[in-house]
Amino acid sequence: MVHYGQPSTCEHVQKRANYKSDRVESITLGKISGRQIIIYDKREEVLAKRSFQWFQIWNIDRHDPTQTIHLVELRAGKNELKKFKITTFEDFLTRIGDLFAKTVHVVRYVSPQENDMNISRRTSHPVWLHVVEHVHSQFLDYRSGFEPEDFLEVIRDEKAMEYMQQIKGLSAGLAVCCGIENEDIPEAISEVIHNSLQTAISSNDNKFSKTYTRAKDRLHFISPK
Questions:
Q1: Does the global pTM surpass 0.90?
Q2: Distance from chain centroid for Cα 138
Q3: Bridge partners of residue 19, in order along the sequence
Q4: I want to staple 124 with a disulfide (CB 3.0 to 4.6 A). Which of 74, 89, 128, 192 is the partner?
Q5: Each residue of 183-204: pLDDT tens digit?
Q6: How many other C-beta atoms are found inside a 10 Å radius of the C-beta of residue 216?
Q7: Residues 39, 26: contact at Cβ < 8 Å?
Q8: Could you give the CA distance from residue 110 to residue 22 in angstroms, rounded to a whole number?
């Protein structure tokens, strides 16, 4: 059974399973444009393609159905790459390990436990522990410690600074229009802006509320969660 998300917050994700008779041949989580994980029976695929040389490489008996090989693929589409700011080959070499480490952190393949229906409390399956260990050891040279939240925080700070610069410039012009002297600006302009905002917020036409909603929709991708 696959558990997607942390115990406190599970994400909704597209799931698909392929069956042959009563056997599950593959499990797919997520969409190809974003984060996607596929677990499938490599033995069945090799048999279907008659690539029997693989059984010699694996050193298993192809006539024994109990000896299986399962492949776990971690995939990242354009949307997931964008989250980790991976747009060039150099970015890929620097941060693909961060992306895969995040993937195996939020998704787990857990061991079945009949007496506990709470999936979040179940232990990770040995296969998944091997996947996690492999990702952390083999992709160590391709990690920078980058988290998507770090990138969004930078953008958020830059946008806030941009708005603040606009407020400063507009406040200077407003002070002149209101006849406020330079030495009186700190106190007087604050009162003028406060009163204006209070009137706008309290107005029955809800214009300020609508403006706020439009801004929130426009900046939703950088809003603090």
A1: no
A2: 22
A3: 24
A4: 128
A5: 999 899 999 999 999 999 999 8
A6: 10
A7: yes
A8: 21
